[in-house]
Amino acid sequence: MLSVIIPTAGVEQTTVATLAALVPGAASGLIREVLLVDGTRNGVIERVADVAGCRFIGFEGPHGAALAAGALQARSPWLMFLHAGAVLESGWIDETTQFIQNVSASGKPRAAVFRYARSPYASAGLGDALRFLARIVRPQGDQGLLIARDHYDQLGGYPPHVRRSEARLLRRLGRSSRTLRSRIVKMA
Description:
The structure is a single chain. This protein is α/β, with parallel strands linked by helices. The protein contains seven helices and eight strands. Strands 3-2-1-4-7-6-8-5 form an eight-stranded mixed sheet, with helices on both faces. Helix 1 (12-27) runs parallel beside helix 2 (44-52).
């Protein structure tokens, strides 16, 4: 039902943290596949994908190209985009399932992001507080994105060679997006 696309930067620790949070979703049958998209060519993420049973996709280009490459290869009718190091807290499986069922039943194109939660290990400076407040007004790419493939395609997806392609897609979603109650924590 759901393909999870994770662009990585060749860093094992953050990628594994995100994958560990997805295990219950795979066990429940919600997650059909996980795609790890990496352009570093250092072999680290390819080995992680092999061990974890994920699909590995190599790419060249900016962050938007990684997102677009993952979406192009995904096989499910629903897509979830997560940054490496993003950890979904408990409750996300039920809420994600309900969201997908409600959107499918309504026939209205909708998308969702997760509620941002600052890592308890992050420094608590003024800049962090301002970024937290900005997320309330306008969701950011590191809050994840849950979207039906049809809706994603209608919006044109992530433009592969455009700066800030995540922000551009989130702006295009406008009022068709909603923030879920489940929290997402970005690990360093």
